[in-house]
Amino acid sequence: MTYLITGARGMLGRDVTAALRAAGHDVVPLGRDALDITRPSAVRSAFASLRPRTVVNCAAYTAVDAAEHDEPAAHRVNADGPRHLAETCAATGARLVHISTDYVFAGDADAPYAENAPTHPRTAYGRTKLAGEQAVLETLPETGTVLRTAWLYGAHGPNFVATMAGLASGDGPVDVVADQYGQPTWTADVAARIASLPPFPGVLHATCAGGTTWYGLAREVFTLLGADPDRVRPVTTVDIPRPTPRPANSTLAHARWAAVGLPPLRHWREALHAAWPALGLPGRTA
Questions:
Q1: CATH superfamily of the 2-157+185-209+251-265 domain
Q2: CA torsion sign, 8 to 16 to 82 to 209?
Q3: DSSP readout, 32-65?
Q4: SS3 letters for 202-216?
Q5: What is the pLDDT along the chain (286 residues), one digit of tens a residue?
Q6: Distance (Å, rounded) from C-alpha 90 to C-alpha 69?
Q7: What radius of gyration do the chain's Cα atoms show?
Q8: Dist CA 274 CA 286 (whole Å)
Q9: Per 3-state DSSP, what percentage of the chain is helix, strand, and coil (rounded to 5)?
Q10: Which residues fall within 8 angstroms of residue 138, CB to CB, at 6 or more apart?
């Protein structure tokens, strides 16, 4: 089976490529320079030459603040791109696994969001990602899978864990938001799940189990590095204003994995400890 990976040069795309190859699959990874999913003719041409049976769409416009100022640009990548892929998958009989985000929700619930919870994005990024989800599910009701994830970190791109590791090497206090909750998730865990995912139409949540705040995650990173976690100081969202609102609650529920026949991803702390050597960071993992 040939897998086509779009957005293959990104943090998740690189791990998805590695996981599929490790599982023995024939994989064609394409970055934006090789396949611009906003161009329907480019998508059709890639399908005609490669004849993929499964497409994993990791391509996305993920600059949340920039999207707020240029929603049309984000829409072309996050909504039009998935629609072009879905339409070509429908025409060729290919399956599509589309990566989405917690930002499709309002982020103000008092419990983890279920897969079928009402969506209500509060940002341009969230609106465009929701439009992409809808395009996939409407075009491919039997062969389209939407995989929502959040709070990703990995070895191949900028992320919060790497940022905290850099700050831990310095001196003095580090202020980190303590009133935003989520599920830190290792890209390699998501990639491994994609590699073992059977055909399953609909929405699945691919985030690690449990939950914490950015402050809690930062303290865990400092501890693993052997730095003093008390250097991390809790602050509120109001204390560190951003151009675009961030969700207070990004935690996602995982009940639908039972229907797939697979367990939810492991606890976020277990995953972070397992990821540590792959992230190339010093310190300990015990």
A1: NAD(P)-binding Rossmann-like Domain (3.40.50.720)
A2: negative
A3: TTT--TT-HHHHHHHHHHH--SEEEE------HH
A4: EEEECCCECCEEHHH
A5: 699 999 999 999 999 999 999 999 999 999 999 999 999 999 999 999 999 999 999 999 999 999 999 999 999 999 999 999 999 999 999 999 999 999 999 999 999 999 999 999 999 999 999 999 999 999 999 999 999 999 999 999 999 999 999 999 999 999 999 999 999 999 999 999 999 999 999 999 999 999 999 999 999 999 999 999 999 999 999 999 888 999 999 999 999 999 999 999 999 999 999 999 999 888 754 4
A6: 33
A7: 19
A8: 10
A9: 45, 20, 40
A10: none
The answer to whether 203 and 272 are in contact (CB under 8 A) is no
For residue 63, the number of C-alpha atoms closer than 13 Å in the C-beta half-sphere is 9
Active site residues: 125
**Cα 234 to Cα 36: distance, rounded to the nearest angstrom:** 41
User: Tokens standing for 15?
Assistant: 């791990």
User: Whole-model pTM above 0.90?
Assistant: yes
- Which tokens hold the place of 51? 């004849």
Contact 145, 117 (CB under 8 A): no
Domain boundaries, the chain: 2-157+185-209+251-265
Rounded Cα–Cα distance for residues 84 and 107 (Å): 29
Q: Please provide residue 210's backbone torsions phi and psi, each rounded to the nearest 5 degrees.
A: 80, -160
Question: Which of 26, 33, 27 minimizes the C-alpha distance to 10?
Answer: 33
